[in-house]
Amino acid sequence: MARFPQRLESPLAYEIARALIDGFDRHYRLFRLESARAKQRYEAADWHGQQRAQRERIEFYDLRVREAVARLETEFRAHEQPMAVWQEAKLHYIGLLIDHHQPELAETFFNSVSTKILHRTYFHNEFIFVRPAVSTEYIENDEPAASATYRAYYPSRESLHETLTRVIDNFRLQRPFQDLPRDTAQVCRVMAHRLAPMRLRANFQIQVLSSLFYRNKGAYAVGKIINGFTELPFALPILHDDDGQLVIDACLFGEDELQMLFSFARAYFMVDMEVPSAYVQFLRSLMPRKPRAEIYNALGLAKQGKTLFYRDFLYHLRHSSDKFRIAPGIRGMVMLVFDLPSFPYVFKLIRDEFPPQKETTREQVQGKYLLVKQHDRVGRMADTLEYSEVAFARDRFEDELVEEIRRHAPSQLEISDRDGDGREEVIIKHLYIERRMIPLNIYLQEAFDAGALGQVERAVIEYGNAIKDLVAANIFPGDMLWKNFGVTRHGKVVFYDYDEIEYLTDCHFRHVPQARTEEEELSGEVWWRVGPRDVFPETFAPFLLGNPTVREVFMRHHADLLDPAFWQMHKERIQSGHVFDVFPYEHDKRFVYQASSELAA
Fold it and tell me: Which GO biological process entries does UniProt record here (predicted)?
């Protein structure tokens, strides 16, 4: 039980708390300003600027934390202050959050700063926020000029089209639509089809979040239809057409389609939020199965996502009894992977040494993971949570796993009672955590074993689509073996092995040279000169297409991936400044596709 002071008597503690809240407010002000500017970049079709801003915004948090640490050390010699001062500082800080609009984020900021100053033995509830101290329920900005979190509209069946037009007009986009009445009529047609079997109840309404969600070349209006006890989530993607005018591209409906839009394998949105917890609460009503941690991540608030993930993880550990084990599947040459069977994530740490064919270093591997964090993941690369000094109860680890870590990553392992509480812990120095997926090689084998050839075909097609989406995002995956891809619960194929990825524009795509002699033609070795970033797509086939069924499907749908011309064409277009469209929804959802299908019929 924490023993807090009965009275707050230290003026220094208040000044420390005040400096911390100033540091957080500066961070969120800059974060929100950059997010709000996404609207102007979208209107100007500044796609490179949008991508650059998404990348740079990720660094904001750590910069502000370092600034706050430097201020506390310079002004207050914070590391020298007794624990009584830090106890009071936390209580003062709680008081400063009572009417704050982002209290949960501010608590996380307090933790980030204080844990860089305090010794690890003080990382518990007396000195940091292990659990939230301030409620985020029902927070709203009551200032007269402030926007509400969402707008509510009350159409009838007859006025639905007019209402949808008003929904879009209220975002005040400073670029003309090609034909907004046509687009909203298409949305109205889709919605009316969903509503046709329903009787409209007294509470029939449409609720739409007040800010658009910006990512890459798209803006998304996100909301829900409420009718009686039914709530139907929807999202409307707004894109630029070839002439630079705006069009509503599709109408996405239901939790599964919104889950795809907010996937952990996509870049973070830019959205202007005064009260982020209110946005998260609204989005959670649309996607109740999606963890709050992943929603915060999707909104660009990755540190809060990490905080919530870790709280959920500790809660799960407390209410489970299974043990961490070596993860099933083919063991990697760079990463050592383990999991907890009852928990839907995997834990990855970098091995201390790599086999000769892996010419890399720990620092380079960490750089690849950072590249993925900052890059547009286009729904094809899993996001990762990165932690340092993670402590687990020793009795939750299988002995085989401990020995595996001791053998292959001893520099990352400490087993001790560091906290002095009488319980031995396994402490991992540096760790990546990501969503667990079914490895694609295992998925295919299970499908073959079950005789599910349709499932095999879909998976192979998805595999090729995943590579092509990565290519469009200027990513060459490097090691394209099936085992380096996973299948999500929605059937999407996602890449998760990053130690060999490169920017497409840094690679040289070449044909295999013609053999000059019979010896060269019969040689089982590579006889031609190969540069460090030379890629020979024709050589992919022997490694990927040994199974005749897989080969037939692959060659029917993705034979171009074996042709250097495909890769070179995309490389040249990216170098010329082109930004490819990669849609977070199926092609047949697009209104332009539906219109062409109707004409063809």
Answer: glucose metabolic process; glyoxylate cycle; tricarboxylic acid cycle
